[in-house]
Amino acid sequence: MQELRTEPRQRRSQQSIDGILDAAERLIHRDGQVSFTAAELAAGAHMSIGRVYYWFPDIPSVVSALVERTVQRMVGVFGVALGSEVDTSTPLLVHRVVGALCDHIDANPATVALSLTGGADSQGWPLYRRMVELVGYVVAERVPDVPDEEALLVASTAISITLGMLHDYTRAGDRKVLIRQELVYVVSAWLYARYPSSDDQVWGNPEWPLQPSRLPRPGYVESSPVWPALAPGQPPVAGRPPAAGPHT
């Protein structure tokens, strides 16, 4: 980590650094932003302020190191979730990525707050940018003739929707499963409306209320249904509360 004042040389040293970053993660999650003091950080890491400053010159360097660690973990999460995504339907792919991302946020609860902190000059910008790059890659793979500007727009919008809906996810308790399902539905519906499969009737109907942008790659056909949260009639899913019927 380039922000370290001193490079760790022993396992115990790395544990100290991880302890500081873990404490920073908890404090950012608690406050929803980067607003903690050195004293709070030291107390959260169960060490002296001097020990914190032995490793890091200031609070911004701690946050930068936390962002770097989160980016590394996020790349791994997206890599596993995307896998060989070429032949996976959009709803299934979104479901897989959202599930992996939510599991990551459960383990790294400051992810959303870091991603939403400030703009292009903020410390959290590298995390947001990396997430957009990963989604942009998937868009380009699925829609081969999409211009870079459109791929960036779509990826940025998808990430913004996702981060917005996951803003209070870690505090949602039993509603987490509903948030996951609704997020999958919202992102899948939006992406499908923009890039419907080649056999969709919208391509021959210029009066269709939601007009598409471009065809996905040749031969690509969507075949996986996706249900909104709490919709009646949907098949049961483990961990999801049953939807209320029309007479309930």
Keywords, separated by commas or semicolons:
248 residues, Tetracycline Repressor, domain 2
Summarize this structure briefly.
The protein has 9 helices and no strands. It is mostly helical and 248 residues long.
What does the model show?
- The protein is an all-alpha fold and 248 residues long.
- It has one domain: Tetracycline Repressor, domain 2 (Orthogonal Bundle).
- It has nine helices and no strands.
- Helix 4 packs parallel to helix 7 (125-142) and helix 8 runs antiparallel to helix 9 (176-194).
- The N and C termini lie far apart (56 Å).
What's the CATH first level?
A: Mainly Alpha
Question: According to CATH, what is the topology?
Answer: Tetracycline Repressor, domain 2
Judged by helices, strands and strand pairing, the structural class is: mainly alpha
Morphology: elongated
Strand content: under 5%
User: What is the CATH superfamily?
Assistant: Tetracycline Repressor, domain 2
- Mean pLDDT across the residues is 85
* Ends apart, CA distance between termini: 56 Å
| Rg, Cα atoms, Å | 21 Å
Number of helical segments with 4 or more residues: 9
Topology record:
Layout: H1 11-31, H2 38-45, H3 49-55, H4 59-82, H5 90-107, H6 111-115, H7 125-142, H8 148-165, H9 176-194
Helix pairs in contact: 1-2, 1-4, 4-5, 4-7, 5-9, 7-8, 8-9
